[in-house]
Amino acid sequence: MTRRPAPRRVVVWTAVLLVCGGFGAGVPVWTDARSAARYPVTAEDLAAARAALGALAVRPASSSSGYSREQFGQAWADVDRNGCDTRNDVLRRDLTDVTLKPGTSDCVVLSGTLADPYTGSVVRFERGAGSTAVQIDHLVALSDAWRTGAQFWPASRREQLANDPANLLAVDGRTNQDKGDGDAATWLPPEHGYRCVYVMRQVRVKAAYGLWVTAAERDAIDHQLDRCVVARRS
């Protein structure tokens, strides 16, 4: 069994909490600011995200015609050639209290605990009939990627995106199903505090692969970046 230490708490500027804007009707500002403080970002990362967003092409989404999961290669391929498929790689990375199946070269995850960033809840993973309780989300959904540039790529590049750890996150299964193929304009994590990190990761992926954003998506991302909580240097 491999155990991982819990993440350290990060102290944030009180001033940042006070100046954060409203987050939605009926939700107190301080409540969402405190929630966002669980997932602080550095000033450098925030500036990089803003610059990357500003550099992304803004275009209408293309048609979904021709899209299928198979256009992005074998599901959970071992693209990094480490002997483990991508799904198990992400489970080992994102779960704690992980139990590994003997005889699989420490590859196959049998059980573990997920601190789900999308809901703020704790989800238990057990391989078998209930394993869909934890799913691996593509932060930039593959069908969204298809509509914003990936349909013009070679198959090898689409497979790379589908298995890139930067675009993958273990999350609560039901919430992942609710997201579907939504972009930031149509879906954001229920946990308000994680939304800043979520859109930052989406921007990073889209910038790295040269995907574009729709005008509504860009505006939604920009709106969330304005609500990020910046960590104080220790």
Describe the fold and architecture.
The protein is an alpha+beta fold and 234 residues long. The protein contains nine helices and five strands. The strands form two sheets. The chain has a three-stranded antiparallel sheet with strand order 1-2-3. Strand 2 (109-115) and strand 3 (122-126) form a beta hairpin. Helix 3 (43-55) packs antiparallel against helix 9. The chain starts with 13 loop residues before the first helix and ends in a 9-residue tail after the last helix.
Mean pLDDT: 87
Strand order of the largest sheet: 1-2-3
Tell me the number of strands.
Answer: 5
How many helix segments?
Answer: 9
Give the SSE string: HHHHEEEEHHEHHH
- Rough outline: globular
Distance between the termini: 33 Å
Weakly predicted, low-confidence segments: 1-30
Report the biggest beta sheet as strand number plus sense, adding barrel if it closes: 3 strands, antiparallel
> By helix and strand content, what is the structural category?
alpha+beta
Proportion in β-strands = 5-15%
Q: Into which percent range does the helicity of residues fall?
A: 25-40%
Specify Rg, calculated over alpha carbons: 18 Å
